Amino acid sequence: MKSIWYSVGQRLLKWLGLAETEAHMKSIWYFVGLLLTVMGAIITASALYSLANPPAAEKVLSHLHPDLWWGLFMLAFGMVFALLNRRKTVE
Amino acid sequence: MVTLGLSPVDWLVIAVYFVFIIGLGFYLKRFTKNQEDFFMAGRKNSSWVAGIAFLSANLGALELLGMTGNTFKYGMYVAHFYWIGAIPAMVFLGLYMMPFYYSSRIHSVPGYLKLRFDEKTRVLNAIAFAGMTLLVSGINLYAMALVLHTFVGWDWNVSMWVSAMTVAVYVTLSGLLSAIFTEIVQFFLIWFGLFLVSVMGIVELGGPRAVFARIPPSLATLWSTSADPTQNGMVITWAGIVLGLGFVLSFGYWTTDFLVVQRAFSARDLRAARMTPIIASFFKMAVPFLVIMSGLVAIVLASDPKYGFALLTDGGQVNYDSVLPLLIQRYYPTGLIGLGVTALLAGFMAGQAGNVSAFNTVWTYDIYRALINKKASDEHLLWMGRVTTIVGIILSVVTAYWAKSFPSIMDYMQAIFSWVNAPLFATMLLGMFVVWITPNGAFWGLLAGMGSSFTLFLAVKFQWINPASITLSATASDMAVNFWRAWWAWVICFVVTILVSVFTRKKPKAELVGLVKGLTAETSLQPIPFLKRPEFYGIVSIVILILLNIYYW
User: Fold this and answer.
1) Cβ–Cβ of B13/A70 closer than 8 Å?
2) Which residue in B16, B188, B333 is closest to A62 by CB distance?
3) What interface predicted TM-score (ipTM) does this complex get?
4) Are the CB atoms for A49 and B188 separated by under 8 Å?
5) Residue ranges per domain, chain A?
6) Which CATH class is domain B8-366+518-551?
7) Which of A90, B215, B229, B372 is the most exposed place for a label (fewest CB within 10 A)?
8) Which residue has the higher pLDDT, B255 or B475?
9) Cα angle vertex B132, ends B37, B241, to 5°?
10) B-chain residues within 8 Å CB-CB of A46?
11) Overall average pLDDT of the B538-553 stretch
12) Among candidate residues B142, B53, B100, B97, the one with its CA nearest the CA of residue B397
């Protein structure tokens, strides 16, 4: 069981370019992109769930769905940032 | 009183942040191989990385909450902290002071004092800075726990220890490198986490013009009410703003405080180091959109009962720090609340990491190696940096508990900066631009400046003197007294340094090459196109500053 998780973790790190075999340090912009992508995805998913199941207590201006638009913007911004900086390293 | 209820999605967003920054610390550890990597981030950062870290080291959550609250109290005058109270000093640092700092390959600001003057001046400043850093770090930690307890309902001890331990882990692993990386992450989280607060406020109230139209003139302008202190929210004259904030406090903080200047030292070359504060100045000018605009929106919302918006009160006192959390609660749905809280947490923790990384460098180089172990090896200094990080965090926690039992210590935070930074700016200015200033002049001037600032603080606090004798006006706010005290400390340091220098032995000019204007090669002679020179961007920054001040006059 442990070896499966270890193997999955190693593959994920390798796919992200963060495996221990990588000789050069990734640029900070790449990490910023990764974090914004993950957070944007969570906020977008939460916003879509709220669209289908509206909460009992509405916030001011909730009809504008700020969580959906902002989540999508974060997701797009994060993905572009991560992809553009995926191969950049600090010498 | 708890105002922000967190859902599982909000908790997930917060958890992602914690896992991410600890993972970042472990990732960076493999690239932290020597003391240069640990204390100076390998001196390989671009001007953008160093510039954003330079700004973020100052952009803590305490500042975001405090300044939004101050805007509710003082109105647009708070923008002076971001514009005249920052931009000229940042540009001056980049254009005129950075060549002396960077070219001498020092590890810290006290390190410059050692080269330019002598060991005793370096140690005096190092001890004062280390003490100030730990005190500020502890007070920040206490403030963070207080904010999380008040607005999110978290346990005081748990939020403080979890945050402190997280910072300890990632700073111990890779020092300044991880501090800078997390500061940049924090910068993006603050913008993504808080930008919508101002936008939603503007949308609700019908646009920026509608916001300004509904604010009293004393709170809506920058300079037009500054001739008479009774006509503006801050109860201060333009002279107090220009001399106290715009000159002494601003230059004292932005050009000599090692916490921010250390980020520029991590740049990969002199041009990148000079560009560091100049790039930061553009972002600094934009921060009022988050802070000032939110505060102004809150003023309008609170002034009309139909909006149902009121600040929290503690024991009959209005809690101005509640402005930002209340606006987050008003506008943010599930998920975005987690992002807003994460932005505040990131701000607190990056501020803590900045203080600790500055403390471990000053302790290791300017106190430990200078006084205790002069022959320490590279490996030993790296080890000492890691040990000092843990000790610094523990001392911060102790200070935080002290602050908890003695809450009025929070009031002293602004004062602490004027004790250490304001006189140091006079010492630095004279040291960098006047060749004949002597080591004894610098030492006694600095001591007199710090001593007089502290004495003036006590004199006003315990009413030994009338504050009007400092502020030169019949009425003055606490903020005005702070500005003027900094001005007098600077003047005293400046005068004493010159007087003592006239009568004491000068350093040979050969020892001052590269450290003083006139004995240093002009950097502008390098063959760089004008549009790529720091001078060009410095001018652009100052022009934007002037336009902003005219627009909001």
Assistant:
1) no
2) B333
3) 0.89
4) no
5) 22-90
6) mainly alpha
7) B372
8) B255
9) 110
10) 9, 334-335
11) 94
12) B142
